[in-house]
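Intended use. Records like the one below are meant for learning the mapping from a protein sequence to its folded structure. Do not use them to infer anything beyond what is encoded.
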Amino acid sequence: MNDVFQSDSFNILPHLVSIGLAYLLALPIGWNRERAERSAGIRTFPLVAMASCGFIQAVESITAGSAEATARVVEGVITGMGFIGGGAILHKGDRVQGTATAAALWATGAVGVAVGLGSLDVAVMIALVTGITLYVLSPLKREIETARNGDNKDGNAV
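Structure written out for the chain above:
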């Protein structure tokens, strides 16, 4: 236990870099959700990625990289993301909103886990695909919904 408090075991730079990278990878996703005025945004997404990364790094430092312990923490993060994402989903009459935000939160948790495990290529790809999905497909979804509702660009029924 005393080993934890010795100066040579307090190496903050690798954690700062990893947690900072997880935070930065989540910012564009959070910005997209913030601009769309969703229930989670610019603060929530980076915090989710940072915390997910931190959980992984914390367990690895205290369990000497035990695969079983790491797997249990990953399972816990996945479950926790499900609860957080569930809070983003809203029912309004016969419509359900927030599923994309919930899925993006889950993906952002995966970004943090991947960074925490040192799989930076996986983290970057998850962040890129999530960002592209939100930035490119959100306008397309609005067009589809507008067409489905029978409205034209002026808001008049077709």
